[in-house]
């Protein structure tokens, strides 16, 4: 008796569930939008501001987790890309004061910057790429001081912002803007990653030679990953400019880039839920550390406690569960599969 | 011309420090195939320790010894406690863990010492002597050259003339065979990290008096410069690291001197990009077969 594996054709039921699966990101994002709108009406202004900050962080962590988690390229320069977006928006706003085109322009300019770095990145591996992007992050203050006529060195620029329409409080308005950007980012990324592009990303990450043999353009995929991720960082930077209504190199220090890496690693590399966990941590942990520092009445603790805590968590997570918090459940189910 | 000569000597003196720091990176790369992104933060930590002791006792040299010893201990601890347990299936993991260490060290230093610049006096005068009417070198520059030169000579002797050095090279080159032949591979790895961190601490102690002072982030730019130097030298070659360090030092001195100090970091970035894209194996590295 010969056993013939049945040729797998999708039954009607499977096709139906596939169609539903394609709708999942849209449903999740819609649900997210409803939750955010409801939350903004119930939360006090400061909490709304924090909520808005989570949204702004979510843009960049989502983009970074696609780059690092799915494509295996570690970027320590996303803080600099955020700065690019933020400065673009600031310069635009001070001339024209039209928010939406400004944000689009910020994303475009950062995308171009990302493409340039991506071109270099496609030829570099592991520590070389990390070192290059680290240098990009370190160089931001140097650029703003050298071209101080445009960027006004360490003081930075203020961002003109029209007051929100009607009687909506500013914080609520900011939360809406930031979450609109964040949810749009997540939606686009979810569909990109769920399709052919996502498969290409993973194929290139896992085995470049095999990917190439299978007809995947390795360099093209790596550059595209960088471009997509840079666009997200640019959007996030622009949103941060809207949030703080000012931009300065101090807002985009090297530690910001490191925090972003930490956030996506702890949240779980390559997962958009991980990016959300990371974005929440980026807002909640410093705020918790701040209140501890205030209670202890020590100036030295301020900021540094969060820094230390982030570092400890990052090292522990890397040693205990390199797949991050979001991978724990999946790991238990599939102990042999690597994250 | 006077200015050019002055900048050349200034650049060589800075370059010597970058050489030492790049050498520390190369040592760990050769031993463990990890670029130690925490090197800068570790060097800051030991420099803080050194200057604390120097302030408390009034003796710079006691502080100097403490900083170097602290580097040895810190390097060994980092390897034994953290790096040894990193999942090596992806090269990213080592980098990410090192970044975690950077955050921890900078945070702890900030908590203890605060985030202000702390003055760090030099043990020798930094006023340059005049030779033929041109101010060229200070006593401190000579001290820097002597210290880095001594490290290079000692490391060369260690790796080429002693059995410990031979074991370290063997453990890095062929860990499994070495283990069969009775070489304590783990111990050699710890020793490599300890040595590298001590060399990094020396570089840190040497660079701090020439900068604004001690600060938890003081070594960020030094790290980038030294990384560029190490890559320029091929990342695998100690000779290359020393030469790369001197070249980067000269470039920074000229750019800083002629175009302004704020341009210098950009020059490092541009150099790094040019080297990585033009000659990713460095000026002194041997070309490897592509893996993909």
Architecture overview:
The complex is a heterodimer of chains A (339) and B (292). Chain A has a two-stranded antiparallel sheet with strand order 1-2. With 339 residues, chain A is mainly alpha-helical. Chain A starts with 11 loop residues before the first helix and ends in a 6-residue tail after the last helix. The relative contact order of chain A is 0.16. Helices cover 75% and strands 1% of the residues of chain A. Chain A is built from 15 helices and two strands. In chain A, helix 2 (45-70) packs antiparallel against helix 11, helix 4 (99-121) runs antiparallel to helix 11 (218-244) and helix 9 (196-206) crosses helix 11. Chain A has a domain at 23-159 and 168-253. By secondary structure, chain B is mainly alpha-helical. Chain B has a domain at 15-218. Helices cover 72% and strands 3% of the residues of chain B. Chain B has eleven helices and two strands; from the N terminus they run ααααββααααααα. Chain B has helices at residues 2-32, 39-57, 60-82, 91-113, 139-161, 163-173, 175-180, 185-207, 220-232, 238-259, 264-278, and strands at residues 128-131, 134-138. In chain B, strands 1-2 form a two-stranded antiparallel sheet. The radius of gyration of chain B is 19 Å and the shape is globular. Chains A and B meet through helix 5, helix 6, helix 10, helix 12 and helix 14 of A and helix 4, helix 9 and helix 11 of B.
Widest sheet of chain B: strand order? 1-2
Oligomer: heterodimer
Biggest interface, chains and residues, is: A-B, 55 and 55 residues
Average residue-wise pLDDT of chain B:
87
Structure classification of chain A: mainly alpha
Total count of helical runs of at least 4 residues of chain B: 11
Largest sheet of chain B: 2 strands, antiparallel
Tell me briefly what this model is.
The complex is a heterodimer of chains A (339) and B (292). Chain A has 339 residues and is mainly alpha-helical.
